[in-house]
Automatic annotation (TrEMBL):
Secretion signal, residue range per the UniProt entry: none
Source species of the chain: Fictibacillus arsenicus
Annotated pathway: Amine and polyamine biosynthesis; S-adenosylmethioninamine biosynthesis; S-adenosylmethioninamine from S-adenosyl-L-methionine: step 1/1
Protein name in UniProt: S-adenosylmethionine decarboxylase proenzyme
Entry PTM: Is synthesized initially as an inactive proenzyme. Formation of the active enzyme involves a self-maturation process in which the active site pyruvoyl group is generated from an internal serine residue via an autocatalytic post-translational modification. Two non-identical subunits are generated from the proenzyme in this reaction, and the pyruvate is formed at the N-terminus of the alpha chain, which is derived from the carboxyl end of the proenzyme.
Cofactor annotation comment: Binds 1 pyruvoyl group covalently per subunit.
GO biological process terms on file: spermidine biosynthetic process
Annotated positions of the Pyruvic acid (Ser) modification: S118
Active site: S118, H123, C146
A GO MF term: adenosylmethionine decarboxylase activity
The keyword Metal-binding is annotated on this UniProt entry: no
Amino acid sequence: MTNLPDQRITLHGFNNLTKSLSFNMYDVCFTKTREEREAYIEYIDEQYNAERLTNILQTVSDTIGAHVLNVAKQDYVPQGASVTLLVSEGPVVEVPTDSFDDSATAMPESVVMQLDKSHLTVHTYPEFHPEEGISTFRADIDVSTCGEISPLKALNHLINSFDTDIVTMDYRVRGFTRDIKGHKLFIDHDINSIQNYLSEDIKNMYDMIDTNIYQENIFHTKCRLKEFDLNNYLFGYTKDTLDSRSVEEISDRIKSEMDEIFYGRNIKK
């Protein structure tokens, strides 16, 4: 895995480049009956409740070297959860200004504060097919940082935190900062693919496709598990309890669902 280099560029002021990393992670399951579907959604809702998602994002914050300023979390009814963390590159310093005179322009409650525009968010979406017995769970995650801290450091932890069959990732750098001579810098690190920052273990697990727009500092990678074991997609039983025809039919349904998610389009059967 490529290590992220420390920032060594001498800047004119604060590094206000915004680096955003977005994930869509999908888990697919075959749920033949309504009871299986409800049990699967209940299981997912329990596994990825707001409390656990908060712990995942707090570990992400530690991994990228950020400081948590505020946490907002919510479990929804009937299912789903959301968590948002506001983070800063360094501890926020508050300086009270209490030596004002009595003039009309005095501001006795004013505070000078370091401002940061960084956040981590996650939203979950359990979903099911109305007819074909396929249930899916999607987690949408955004890691947006301003300054030298990089969301790319969170890649491996986030993928390993979810049982995910398909991952789509988008990374983009926006804004600009200036070097000591005033020259604009629209990116402060070398990158030609998100894959450069993935561990070898993860790269060996997935087939990957890149769609990158280098001149716009936009990078997109899609991942799909290489190995298919039907037992990983059955809820509450194993393929040994099925006849060979059922094994083939269910496998085809699940693979078709994964194809459509991976390629982002409906595929005629």
